[in-house]
Amino acid sequence: MSDLVTRHKDVIASVIAFDTDIHAIKAEGIWVTDIDGKRWADFACGTAVLNLGHNHPAVVEAAHKQIDRLMHSGCIVRYDSIVEAAERLRDITPPGIQKFAFANSGAESVEAAVKLAKYSTERQGVVAFRGAFHGRTMGAISYTTSNAKYRDGYHPVLGSVFVAPFPHPYRWGMTEEAAVEHSLNELRLLFKHVVTPKNIACFLVEPVQGEGGYYPAPPAFLEALRELADEHGIMLVFDEVQTGFGRTAEWFAADHFDAKPDVMAMGKGIANGLPLSAYGSSREVMDNWPVGAHGTTFGGNPVSTAAAVAVMDTMEGLLPHARELSKRTFERFHELADSHPTIGDVRGLGLMIGVELVTDRESRTPDKPAFQHIEKYAYDRELIIINCGPDGNVLRFIPPLVATQEEVDWALDLVDEGLTSWENQSG
Predict the structure, then answer these.
(1) pTM for this one?
(2) Which of the 8 DSSP states describes residue 19?
(3) Range(s) for CATH 3.90.1150.10 in the chain?
(4) Which fold, 57-314?
(5) 323, 330 in Cβ contact below 8 A?
(6) Could you tell me if 132 and 143 are in contact, meaning their C-beta atoms sit under 8 angstroms apart?
(7) What is the tally of helices (H) and strands (E) in the chain?
(8) What's the CATH superfamily of 3-55+320-426?
(9) Residues 280-320 pLDDT 10s
(10) CA separation (Å) from 220 to 257, 340, 426?
(11) Which of 117, 182, 216, 387 has its CA 20 to 30 A from that of 77?
């Protein structure tokens, strides 16, 4: 362990978790290099941020040029990079998302999106969905139910937040159709017994649950939410913080579904490592939100928005490659599932893939030690992977979109070997 790691632990609060003790001195593409020259392939992508890999030259160049011109505004002066970023967002977001504002993090964009829905509808209630992760600020943890530990020590959370089931077909042992019907029945009972729809400002939903276990929303579920929202004057808010900017091999997860949102929250991959997030809605909704009803000092920073423009200009050419990588990766994981009983389920969209590890397929008992073994096996062979899910047993496979097929296959081979090692060890 380097001296920097010791110093880090001495002065950096332990509440902020770091997954490794790598003392990184540089990074490029999929690779992170430590002080001794050893390198690791970062398939954690900086926690699902670096869709273009580390230090992508187009992003670095755009940031450098902007630093030489203007670094900060604080919403005092206007500048070109924020306008260009919003114009590019309008080009790639679903129809009806027409005007934008910027923030610094995913949690901030989610909170702003909910504030917008509350102001627009003049209602206070929010329906969130069990298993969701929307951030760790006090507002965001009120909507976050991926793991109860995120709320420990912070009660009471915000009021008028109502949690309904998100369809988890595998975990419930149901078909997708049955899981959707169960979730919608519970939502109807919520409206019957707990809160009437006239009190609800928005449905807040991840089109693919992230931290909660990489569960894609069944299309019928989102379509039903869209219909209920239209029927009752509720706004449908998509949290696309983790799913956006190519992670699902399309611009957004919404591109995979017929149901479209009224409001979108975006973040993570938007600036490929610089702090930035965004939220958007229709021109009418955004124009009816009066000046001063929300605000930011650093959101939409000139350097970060310049980087975002470079991300969007670059990503378009990568999406076909991402689709091919996704197709091949799902094929490989299904092949692995045929030969490894530890794999209970393979799910996801694009290159946002969750592989659920279980002690046996009949009981579906989560197997966190299996993931921990594979994680260490991979790390010892220069590959970084991370988990998700409330039980820590879902392998979160999120390679950078710039990875080659050979690099992804190498990582999949290590997962295969790690599974074999675990199964041989555990009998």
Answers:
(1) 0.97
(2) S
(3) 3-55+320-426
(4) Aspartate Aminotransferase; domain 2 (3.40.640)
(5) no
(6) yes
(7) 13, 17
(8) Aspartate Aminotransferase, domain 1 (3.90.1150.10)
(9) 999 999 999 999 999 999 999 999 999 999 999 999 999 99
(10) 9, 31, 40
(11) 117
